[in-house]
Design a protein that fits this description.
Layout lengths: L14 H12 E3 L2 H10 L12 E3 L4 H4 L1 H27 L1
Antiparallel strand pairs: 1-2
Length: 93
């Protein structure tokens, strides 16, 4: 009988690249220059892991998705026009 192997749910990307992508997708660093200066000031022999302070990005959804509202408005106008055309055609058929 063949040996069963376990499937792992690990991504096919290096751990550093995955962590960097997750940070970029969710949060924006507050002050990258300050973080770099703190790293340069740290001693090279006994170096502790650095921790970046992350701040959530403020997004104005009305500006970000203005094109969606415009498309919805255009579709509503088209739907009303088609309903009027169908109503007029039903009177003559």
């Amino acid at each position: 009988m063949a040996k069963k192997t376990r499937k792992t749910n690990r991504p096919n990307v290096s751990r550093d690249a995955l962590e960097r992508a997750r940070r970029e997708m969710q949060l924006v660093p507050a002050e990258p220059e300050a973080a770099v200066d703190a790293v340069k000031a740290a001693p090279t022999v006994a170096r502790s892991p650095r921790k970046l302070v992350m701040v959530p990005r403020v997004v104005n959804l009305r500006e970000e998705y203005a094109y969606v509202l415009q498309d919805l408005r255009n579709m509503a106008i088209l739907a009303v026009c088609l309903m009027v055309v169908l109503t007029i055609m039903s009177l003559f058929i």
